[in-house]
Structures are given as C-alpha cells and as structure tokens.
Amino acid sequence: MHVCAHGLRNALRVMPVSIGIILAGCAIGGGQASLPTPSFLDKLMPASAPKPPPEPEKRSDCGTAAQCRIALKTMVDGRDRAWVGEKLPPDAYTDGTRLFAYRALRKRLNCRELSMAVDEVHAASSSLKGPMPGVTPEQASRTRALSTEVEGELAREKTARCRGRA
Fold it and tell me: In this predicted model, what pLDDT tens digit does every residue of 50-73 receive, in sequence order?
C-alpha cells in the first residue's frame, strides 16, 4: 500500500509540469476551439484547470495542434523510425511532439534506437539552456522539464533491457 501511495504522490507532482507542456505544445493555434474534436492530450487535462493563452506563432514543423497530433500518430504508429536520433534545432522540440513520441514508443524501441533517443533528448535539453529567437524562457523551461522526464524514462528502459548492447 505504501508503494502505491508513494507512486501516486510522485505522479501528482509531475502532472502539473506535464500538463503545462502539453498545453504549450498542443493549444497553439487558437486552443481547443479550433479543433474539431478534443485530442487524447486534451482528455488528460482536468476540466477545471486554467489554460494558458494561445501562442502567437508556431515554432516547429508540425504547424497547428491538429498537425502535431497527426505527426505524433505517424511517428508512433509508423514502421519507419529513421527519425529516431535525428538532431533538430532546439525550437523543434518546444511543441513536445518528438518527446511524446519517444515516451509512447519507449517499450517498442530496440536497444540501438533507445541509445540514439537518449542521446538526442539529452542534446535537445542541453540546447534549450540559452536564449533562442522565437522561444520564450517559459517554453524552454517546460521543454527542458519534459526532456528530463523522457530522457530518464528512456535511460531506465535501456538499462533494463539492453545490458551490454548498444
């Protein structure tokens, strides 16, 4: 019983950070009003939680919240994982799409992909430490927080499954 309570307590501590990152990445482009149906990320949000104002412009390849959902689904469901380990500019991580894809694929990535993913996420987090055009300090901070969580999850998965393998 104590272990369950401890796990729940830890999950509740991390939830506000994750929710903030989800909103920052997925509420871009006018928020939920511009979406035909709520995304699975929107369903994670409690109804009473305040939503931040939409951001004025998009800073990554996926464009709108709907396009980010499609990109995430394509990354998670696709057989081609050539994108794993690919180094991108720091602002490409601020919508959270790649980080959530890594989180969703964690158990399906092979040892080589896990290793590349850990390296990519670590590099992305490190690259978000200085000022960047088009990225607010708050966005960078939220993205670093999510990157740290995802990097830890990937590293633990790699340690558990890939002893002595790359």
Answer: 555 444 333 445 778 899 999 999
Give a yes or no: residue 103 inside a domain. yes
Amino acid at residue number 64: T
Residue 166 belongs to some domain of the structure: no
Q: 117-132 burial, b for 16+ CB within 10 Å, e for fewer?
A: bbebbebbbebbeeeb
72, 101 contact by CB (below 8 A): yes
pLDDT tens for 68-90 read 999 999 999 999 999 999 988 88
Structural domain contains residue 152: yes
| Residue 32 identity (one-letter amino acid) | Q
**How far apart are alpha carbons 98 and 91 in whole angstroms?**
12
